[in-house]
Amino acid sequence: MRPFLDKVMPEAWQAAEAFSSAIRAAVLERGLSIQESELIKLRTSQVNGCAFCVDLHAREARQAGIVQQQLDLLPVWRETDVFDDRQRAVLAVAEATAALPVTEDSEADLWGARAVLGEEAFVAAEWVAVTINTFNRISILSEHPVRPRGADGTIVR
Predict the structure, then answer these.
(1) In b/e form, how buried is each residue of 144-156, taking b as 16+ CB within 10 angstroms?
(2) What is the DSSP letter of 150?
(3) Which spans in 30-118 are helix H?
(4) Is 79 a residue whose pLDDT tops 90?
(5) How many angstroms separate the first and last alpha carbons of the chain?
(6) Which residues pair with 155 in a beta bridge?
(7) How many CA atoms lie within 13 A of 147 on its CB side?
């Protein structure tokens, strides 16, 4: 097991947390909702395979009011009609930002997302995706564990 990056170099973790807080505040000012941000964080974490972040952001998405059906269908969001146009746009941003290099298809998705969101909310969505990608890498490299939780979200021992 590798050392936890956040524990061995806490000042870097604190800087990452400050960066995340600044992005959180800035995106709300630019028209991106908390629910849309959580969809980006959860879908990006799924694409990146970060179990710790998927667990965390699934809980936070529920707390933000995202319905369970949408959470259940998130991996196959393109195949359903349960997401509105803005949600589909932010999910396209999440996937395009997580899966590099950008392909012709993901570039087309990004142009479509920008048309739906407008420039400010689109850029805000990209910043959320960039930020969660950073935290995904930290959690994956540190092998942060996922702890079993009960239905209410509390840790089960």
Answers:
(1) beeeeeeeeeeee
(2) -
(3) 34-48, 51-63, 68-73, 85-98, 104-117
(4) yes
(5) 22
(6) 149
(7) 7
